[in-house]
What does this fold into?
Amino acid sequence: MKKYPSVPDLAAAARRRLPRFAFDYLDGGAGDEKGLMRNRAAFDAVQFVPGYLEPRGEPDLRTEMFARPYAMPLGVAPVGLSGLIWPRAAEYLAAAAKKAGIPFCLSAMATSSIEKIGAIAGDHGWFQLYPLADHGTEKELLDRAKEAGFSALLVTVDTPTTRRNLREIKNGMTVPPKLSLANMSRIALNPTWALATLAAGPPRFETLTPYFPPGANYTTVAEMISGLLARSIGWPEIEALRKHWSGPMIVKGLLSASDAEHCLAIGVDALLLSNHGGRQSESLVHPLDMIDEIGERTRGELKLFLDSGARSGLDVARAMARGADFVFLGRAFMYGVAALGEAGAAHAVELLRLELEQILGQIGCPDIASLPRFVAKEAGPE
Ligand SMILES: Cc1cc2nc3c(=O)[nH]c(=O)nc-3n(C[C@H](O)[C@H](O)[C@H](O)COP(=O)(O)O)c2cc1C
It folds into this structure.
C-alpha cells in the first residue's frame, strides 16, 4: 500500500487499470471541466493557524449524527453505475464503511440491490433517491430501503437535465455502454477489468430492476430509467417525501440560502451542499463559498453536509473547519476500488483517517468540533 500514499496516487492507478470509457465516466466533469478545477481550488484556499504549545492528546476524530456515533465525520457519497467502474464496488465500499464506522450512501442507480447492501452496511447505510414519477413505486422503494435497515434518506435534486460530459460524449459512453470497435479495443487493453467484469456479468441497475416493465431488456435500460424518474421535482414532492420517510432526511444538491430556509421550514434534517462533483455544469458555485450564508440563515438548526472535490483527510478537516457537519467523497473512494479492488476500499478509508488525524495533530486541534477555531481568516482589506 506504500505505492499509493494518497488518493491522487489511487486515481493514477485507476486510470491505468480501467478502459478509458469507464475511467472517464468516473473522473470526468461537465463541459470544459473548469468546475473540477474550481472545486479543487475551493479546498486549497482553506488554511490553518496552528497552536503548537496547547496541551494535547491523541486527536479525537469521532462525531455524532442523527443520534448515532460515527468514527469520523466523513462518508461515501452515492455513485450510480459503480459496477461499471469495478464489479461489486458498492459491496466493497459498504463493507469498508461499516467496518470503519462511517456512513455509506447507496445510489438509486446502484448496480447492487438494496437488500444486498442493507445486509452488509446495516444502519451505516443511507439511501439516496432520485424522485420517481410514480409515487406508489417510490413508496415501495423507500419501504424496501427502510426494511433493509438504511437509517437515513438523501433526496437528490440537482439533476434536472442530463449532463454534458464531453469525455463521455467523445467516448460514445451510453447506458448500457456501446461495444464500438474503439471501446472493445480499450477493453482488450485492460484485461484485469475485463476479466473481473466478465466474471461478475454486465452491471445491472439492481435497485430499480423490479420496476422495469415485463419483457424489458438490457439494450433499452436507459429508456426504462428515464421513464421511471420524475420529469421535474419541486417543493410538493420534497414535502411528500418528508411526510413519508420517518427517519432523518437530507436534501442533496441545493446551494442557495433561501432553499435552505425552505428546507428547514418543512422539517428536512440536513442539506448535502454539493455541485455534484462538477458533473452537471462547470458553472455551479462551490459549497464552501455558500456555507457561511446558508449557516447564518438557518441558524445552526439545519445540519450542513458538504461534498464536491474532497480528495483527502485534510480536505475533510478544511470543510469541517469552515462549518460543515459532515463531509462526503464520491470519486476518492471509487479511485481506491478501481485501483485495488476490495483492498482499495479499505485503503482509501484508512488514508483519509490517517490524513485527518495528521492535520489535527499538526495544528494542535484536540477534536473535530474544535476545528473552526484553527481556520485562518481570509486576509483582505481592513
Ligand atoms: C461516477 C459518479 C456517479 C454518481 N452518481 C450519483 C448518483 O447516482 N446519485 C447522486 O446523488 N450523486 C451521484 N454522484 C455525485 C456524488 O454523490 C457526489 O456528489 C460527488 O461525487 C462529490 O464530488 P467528488 O467526486 O469530487 O467527491 C455521482 C458521482 C460520480 C463521480
The two ends are 48 Å apart (CA to CA).
